[in-house]
């Protein structure tokens, strides 16, 4: 269904069935038109939860107040829930971590927390080897979780350590992975993945039935390993992507290069990480000065 048609049905439903006021309806219209302008998509079936996350980050980079971001993101979630009830969309917008008041910057793990998280999978088990490889590859490349789970063998150049990623809108980008990610990916491919060849799957990461993994599974293991590592902030699969981008900027990588690696079509989406990086640097400086 065209987004325009779904939007009109949603507005009609809110007015005739929910009896919302004209003023509230005008706010819904403004919020959704702003969201549609950000996504640039024409069909409602193409919408994903990552579009909401990108929208939140764009609003943050524009300096919008946290209350405004929460309101607009809430409107979009209502629209997604409407699409679900109409069997137009299967994405669960409740998986989105909504921004908190007075703190609209995305949560980022420190390098120590990243290391603690990655130490949690049990490397004596096949699932542990696979999970460690997934975590390493996702953090090392800045991939979205959908890109990770849809990664196919032909997209991996293990010799060069390069992944060909098919992102939103079927846009293709080539991203290098670090030595650690390459090491654990090789371990998984040769010690675990090779035993699933009987299923003739093209996907890299498989469950023990030889089938591609689900987003729900990856979400659960992130939550489990985060808890096991004693990390207290709300960590989602997208937190690894946030951390990847922030750590690159903190280490001096050019903003345009980070934009290319993340697959952002608009650099304003990437600029939010400069605010996160600056905030972390200032916090570290203040901590250092207070210790003197």
How would you describe this protein?
The protein has 292 residues and is mostly helical. It is 57% helix and 4% strand. The protein has a three-stranded antiparallel β-sheet, with no helix packed on it. 36% of the residues are buried.
Shape: globular
Listing every helix as H and every strand as E from the N terminus to the C terminus, the arrangement reads HHHHHHHEEEHHHHHH
Gap between N and C termini: 62 Å
Strand share of the residues?
under 5%
Structural class from helices and strands?
mainly alpha
Low-pLDDT runs of 5+ residues are 276-292
Strand order, sheet with most strands: 1-2-3
Residue-averaged pLDDT, rounded? 81
Helix content: 55-70%
Q: Number of helical segments?
A: 13
CA-based gyration radius:
20 Å
Number of strands: 3
List the helices and strands and how they pair.
Blueprint: H1 3-16, H2 22-39, H3 49-61, H4 66-85, H5 111-118, H6 126-141, H7 145-149, E1 156-157, E2 162-166, E3 172-176, H8 179-191, H9 215-228, H10 237-250, H11 255-262, H12 267-270, H13 272-291
Antiparallel strand pairs: 1-2, 2-3
Helix pairs in contact: 1-2, 2-4, 3-4, 6-8, 6-10, 10-13
At a glance:
Helix content is 57%, strand content 4%. It has a three-stranded antiparallel β-sheet with strand order 1-2-3, with no helix packed on it.
Which labels suit this protein?
4% strand; 13 helices; mainly alpha; 3-stranded antiparallel β-sheet; disordered C terminus; 292 residues
């Amino acid at each position: 269904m065209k987004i325009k048609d779904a939007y009109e049905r949603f507005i009609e439903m809110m007015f005739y069935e929910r009896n919302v006021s004209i003023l509230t309806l005008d706010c819904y219209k403004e919020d959704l038109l702003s969201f549609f302008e950000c996504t640039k998509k024409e069909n409602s079936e193409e919408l994903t939860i990552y579009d909401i996350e990108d929208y939140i980050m764009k609003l943050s980079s524009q300096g919008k107040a946290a209350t405004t971001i929460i309101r607009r993101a809430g409107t979009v979630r209502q629209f997604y829930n409407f699409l679900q009830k109409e069997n137009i969309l299967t994405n669960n917008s409740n998986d989105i971590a909504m921004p908190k008041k007075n703190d609209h910057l995305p949560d980022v793990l420190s390098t120590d927390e990243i290391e603690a998280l990655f130490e949690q999978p049990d490397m004596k088990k096949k699932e542990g080897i696979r999970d460690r490889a997934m975590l390493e590859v996702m953090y090392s490349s800045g991939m979205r979780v959908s890109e990770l789970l849809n990664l196919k063998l032909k997209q991996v150049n293990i010799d060069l350590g390069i992944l060909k990623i098919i992102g939103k809108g079927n846009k293709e980008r080539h991203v290098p992975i670090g030595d650690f990610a390459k090491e654990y990916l090789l371990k998984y491919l040769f010690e675990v993945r090779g035993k699933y060849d009987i299923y003739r799957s093209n996907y890299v990461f498989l469950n023990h039935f030889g089938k591609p993994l689900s987003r729900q599974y990856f979400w659960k293991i992130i939550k489990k390993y985060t808890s096991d590592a004693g990390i207290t902030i709300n960590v989602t699969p997208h937190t690894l992507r946030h951390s990847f981008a922030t750590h690159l900027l903190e280490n001096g990588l050019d903003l345009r290069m980070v934009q290319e690696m993340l697959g952002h079509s608009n650099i304003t989406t990437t600029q939010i990480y400069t605010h996160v990086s600056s905030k972390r640097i200032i916090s570290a400086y203040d901590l250092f000065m207070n210790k003197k």
